[in-house]
Model the fold of this input.
Amino acid sequence: MGKVIFSINMTLDGCVDHTKGNSNEEVHDYFTELLKGMDLLFYGRKTYELMVPFWPDIAKSQSGGTRSMNDFAQTFDAIDRVVVSRSLTHVDDPKTRIVRANPGDEIRKLKQESDKRIALGGVDLPSQLIAQDLVDEYYFVIHPVIAGEGRRLLDLTHLQAQLQLNLVSSTNLGSGTVALHFTR
Done:
C-alpha cells in the first residue's frame, strides 16, 4: 500500500505562506533529500502553478543561483506529478496529468494500487486530505520567524477528531530552522 507524505514550511506562529519563511541552502538540501524518496507529487492547482514551470525551467537551465536550488530543481523535475483541478484544461508539462475526480478518492485509489510514496504539497488540498485522515507522514520545517499574519494550515478545515502524531525525528537545519518528522 502506498503512503502519502505531506511536507511544508511554516513559521513559529503557524503561518504557511511561502513568502514568510527563510529558505537557505540547508533547507533546500533537506527538501531535495526528502523528494528523492518520492514517486509522485500530488498538488492542487495553486501550488502546481507556483512550482511549474518555475522548477522545471531551473532544472533545464541550472539558473537557480545556488547548487542547492539547482539540485532541488533537478530532483523535482524528475518526478511525475498529479494536479487536482476543475479549472485547468491542459498542462504543457509532460510529467504532469490533471485529475478532476474527488482528491480523497484519487488518493485512496493511488494508495491501494501501488507502494508509491506520494508527496503532497500546498495548503488547501492537504488540509482536505488531513481532515479525511489520508496522510501517513508529516514533515514540518519550522522557521524562526513570527509572521503575525497569513494563512495557517487547517484554517478553513474542521477535523472530526484530534489527530495524534508520533515524533520520528527532529533535525536542526541551522539558522534556527528545525525539521520535524511525524507519522500517524
